[in-house]
Amino acid sequence: MIRRKFNFNVFALFFLLSASLIFFAACGSTSTITPPETSDTPVIDGSLSDWDTGETLIMPEEGINYYARYDEQNLYLFIEITSPFRDRTIRQSGLIVYLSDNEEERNKTGVGYPSGSFNLLRENPAVFNDFLTESDWFSKPANLDMLENLEEQIFDRILIVERPDGRNPEYAFVDQTRIEVDGMQIAADNRSRYISLELKIPRNGDSIYGFNGNDVWLGLAVETPSFRINTDSDYSPTMDRQRGIYGNQRQRQPRRQDISRSLGEFEKWVRLDLR
Predict the structure, then answer these.
(1) Is 163 part of any domain?
(2) Which residues in the chain show pLDDT less than 70?
(3) pLDDT value of position 256
(4) What is the pLDDT of residue 213?
(5) pLDDT at 231
(6) Alpha-carbon distance 33 to 216, whole Å?
(7) In whole angstroms, what is the distance from residue 273 CA to residue 275 CA?
(8) What is the b/e burial string over 110-148, where b = at least 16 CB atoms within 10 angstroms of the residue's CB?
(9) Residue 208 · residue 96 · CB < 8 Å
């Protein structure tokens, strides 16, 4: 895997520039799409070689193309990343796929792959808390080295996101064999310029998603961590300052929503008709 060095100055510039971009979740009613039925069984390897891209493309988006098809036993999905911004955000925060035949509980269970270097920090609660709260966290070389090392592990395990109460997410990491036991398959191509992801999900209710209906809610999301930067903390060497008539003044800290958008947070839902 090509090593991608983290650089704080580049990150800071990227943060400021990308904050001007708008990556909102779709508003209004969710569209219904009928993907094509297939008689071929694709090899799940993270490659589009077995896909008729013209027929199976269900959602062309800026930076991501979504493909889907199905047969009597399985639903097949392919997510193709087409921009460096989306590739970077997915390597950091992971790509979560939600599937459910219950609209009210459609985000109850999600599978994240790659898991994302930010999410891997969750395995060390103390480090993760510092990551969420310290305004100068990204200025420390040791932290950047840690993120670089974690990025090499984002394809090693799968992130499971559960919302037992329908709201608050809980996170766990599992080996790929855990989801393959029930017939689900997932594969990624991480050798190309950008990531691509391919999934096979049984329609009989046996998968981790548990859906078995013909009306399926499909959600795709990049969910960034819930930063809680301490705006009342003392000056930090990395804080932006401006000199005014009253001396050094601290710049307004970015809001959580601004941070999330700049890091590529998004959520896209579509209803699949598998009749």
Answers:
(1) yes
(2) 1-29, 230-257
(3) 59
(4) 84
(5) 58
(6) 10
(7) 6
(8) bbbbbbbbbbbbbeeeeebeebbebbebbbeeebbebbe
(9) no
pTM score: 0.81
Closest CA to 186 of 160, 213, 151, 158: 158
How is residue 19 written in tokens? Answer: 């904050």
From the list 73, 30, 52, 56, the residue with the least C-alpha distance to 269 is: 30
**The total number of structural domains that make up the chain:** 1
Q: Checking DSSP bridges between strand 266-273 and strand 215-222, what pairing results, if any?
A: antiparallel
Q: Measured between alpha carbons, how far is 138 from 42 in angstroms, rounded to an integer?
A: 42
Q: Which tokens hold the place of 201?
A: 């999900």
Tell me the two tokens of residue 218: 């499909």
Residue 269 lies inside a defined structural domain of this protein: yes
> pLDDT tens across 12-70, in order?
434 434 433 433 333 445 799 999 999 988 899 999 999 999 999 998 888 999 999 99
Nearest-angstrom CA–CA distance, 56 and 42: 13
Structure tokens at 65: 């193309």
- Structural domain contains residue 1: no
Domain assignment of residue 14, given as a range:
8-273
> Within a domain: residue 3?
no
CA distance 216 to 77: 13
The pLDDT value given to residue 73: 95
| Contact in structure between 207 and 201 (CB atoms under 8 Å) | yes
